[in-house]
Design a protein that fits this description.
The structure is a single chain. By secondary structure, this protein is an alpha/beta fold. Helix 2 crosses helix 3, helix 2 crosses helix 11 and helix 6 runs parallel beside helix 11. It starts with a helix and ends in a 30-residue tail after the last helix.
Length: 331
Amino acid sequence: MNRKQRNTRLFGSRGSPFAPRKCVAIYGSATSRKDLTQPRLVACLVLKTATRNDYRGVCELLTLSPALREAIGLNKVPRFITLGKFASKSGIMEIVDAMIGQTLADAGIRVIPGEITVDSTGMLNGAAGAHYQIRAGGSGRTRRKPVKVSAAIVRGAMPPAALVVGMGSSADMKQTPALMDQIEARTKPVRLMADKGYDAEWAHEASRERRGAESLIPPVPRAHDGSVRTKWRSKMVALPKAFGRRRRAESFFSGMKRTMLATLSSRSERTMLVEAALKALAYAIRRQDRPRRREGVYRALGEPCHPETCQPGVVRCNNAEPGCPRRGRWS
């Protein structure tokens, strides 16, 4: 599948895992001209992020690609100013958040319930080097505030169960309450795993006592003698082998930055937050649509790739029927 076909498949409105119509009203106001709908504008923004274009570039791409326009359902190509204003409007972050939840619900993948890994990363604006900044009259060290992105990944599903973005460098714990509220609204956590940046007694209490989920967070010794004395943190000194699966959240951010770039091209703080959230959404859709992804999930669960029949083309079949010719074999 080439890039043009992949873009048509991922961001079209037919047969695609991306369905913005369920998360946003058709028109923004009663006095709209009704020539462009909000779901189609959202699809254009996701396409812009996935193809690493600017607003002018994605408009040129849509102009030159009738297949993309047909897949999205565009009768006319929006102007780049229209896309820019739509990205900076109030309420766009709520739309993106609802789309992330809907993407998880529409994944159609049975996941191991509740094993969630949490991590965070930062994204900076611009990719100009220090030499260019000095030549332009700057000191070479001046940068805008970064965007802090925190995500919760469910084992067996690529779309994040929760995503929180904010401006400025901050501790990982600052976004944890909002992240846990989103997790509780979308799935029932059984185990929560995070790195040392989330080490706090109240985090264990919020997970274990309020939500009934096992928390695995390596402690940071803060006493003078190097001991850990609080109730739940003292039990985290020796973590089980299952804690190694925490790397799934790191893998999500690593893949997102490799494919969607680690820098932001937006200038205002509001559009920087929207662009960071759209990067996570576009990467989740891209990974969700990979045909081998679903088979890998079933393989991790120890269930058949095709529950009813063992069809050709699967990676491995774990069908319980002894007569299956592809039982336990790798293609």
